[in-house]
Amino acid sequence: MVGTLITIEGLDGAGKTTLASGLLAAARERGADALLLREPGGVALSERLREIVKDPALRVGPRAEALIYAAARAQLVDELLLPELDAGRFVLLDRFVDSSLAYQGGGRGLGVAEIAELNRFGTGGLAPARTLLLRIDPALGRSRQDGRGDGPDRLELEDERFFAAIARTYDEIAAAEPGRVRVIDAARPPAAVLEDALAAITDLLPGAPE
């Protein structure tokens, strides 16, 4: 594998989509053969699983939820992510394994170690070169979601304790892997967040000193 995988993580409302678009444009400007993907989704099977797991009309148990996310991720890795990385592309991925560690491992209380093992199997052990964690207070993230105008999905309907547990788990992941995970203050204006994110991955972009 000769490509580079950068993942973007954080609570809903942290600004991951905005940052991902800005990073894609900046990476291409700097000469990277860059591609942006999202999770769950990216390929046909994963997009169908996305519809299921986010549908507020469905009851999905915590273990089933973890398995659905892992299945969608496994298909994305096999069908698209590994081939693109093998082709040497610079891949930006909106969510990856850390989302399941935080949401299902922490938020659902299934255990980070257990969810990590499930996803090691699903991804074949694929890990990002760098992860950008957009840290935001859960209440601020929720207020941003309320202003989007679209209805909440199944996970967004959960209570404050759920999102507080997710935020704690993200912080624990960042503390355990400071070399991989770079924490960015998502409460700052989008332009400042993009600037911070670019500084955090500049060594991985084309032309960076070795």
TrEMBL record:
CDD domains: TMPK. Its EC number is 2.7.4.9. Keywords: ATP-binding, Kinase, Nucleotide biosynthesis, Nucleotide-binding, Transferase. Pfam families: Thymidylate_kin. One of its GO terms (cellular component) is cytosol. It catalyses: dTMP + ATP = dTDP + ADP. SUPFAM superfamilies: P-loop containing nucleoside triphosphate hydrolases (SSF52540). One of its GO terms (molecular function) is dTMP kinase activity. GO terms for biological process: dTDP biosynthetic process; dTTP biosynthetic process; dUDP biosynthetic process. InterPro entries: P-loop_NTPase, Thymidylate_kin-like_dom, Thymidylate_kin_CS, Thymidylate_kinase. PROSITE patterns: THYMIDYLATE_KINASE. Residues 8-195 form the Thymidylate kinase-like domain. It is an enzyme of class 2 (transferase). Belongs to the thymidylate kinase family. This is dTMP kinase.
